[in-house]
Amino acid sequence: MQRFLFSTYPRSYADLTNKENFSQMEIKYKDNLVTAVSAECGLTKQQTNSIVDSVTSNIIKLVAQGSVDLEDSILRIQTFGSFTSTLRGARIGWNPCTGEAIDIPAIRSVSFTPAMGFRNAVSAIA
Question: What is the pTM for the complete model shown?
Fold first, then answer.
């Protein structure tokens, strides 16, 4: 039976470590963003780097600052997307080897939902 590669996105860690799949991905780093913004705005890379650091640290602070009383905290950037901090309640899990009950504590998780313009721009490229 022949297997077809429907997507270049890795489906597991094994796919990510496979050199054939890894070579098909283009990975962008913070330096790529800093270079692009500094060229577009006419700023030095040092100035742009400090701006990017400030923006990312403030996004983290605002999303993490969500009220303890509220289950969700949302940070919306109009043309970019929404960062949502959601409270996942405490629950009881099971150890699959022993069958023993385990208390899993409540945690906050973060998700990102791209704005419609962002989604359309990405899908237009594909």
Answer: 0.64
Q: How distant, in Å, are the alpha carbons of 51, 92, 106 from that of 29?
A: 16, 39, 32
| Residue 74: Cβ-neighbour burial (10 angstroms; 0-12, 13-18, 19+) | middle
**Locate tokens 């990102």: which residue?**
112
Radius of gyration of the chain (CA): 20
The two tokens of residue 29 are 């780093």
pLDDT digits (tens, 9 = 90+) for 17-75: 555 555 566 778 999 999 999 999 999 999 999 999 999 999 988 888 865 555 567 88
Where do the domains of the chain lie? Answer: 1-65, 68-126
Question: For the structural domain made of 68-126, what CATH number should be given?
Answer: 4.10.520.10
CA distance 72 to 95: 29
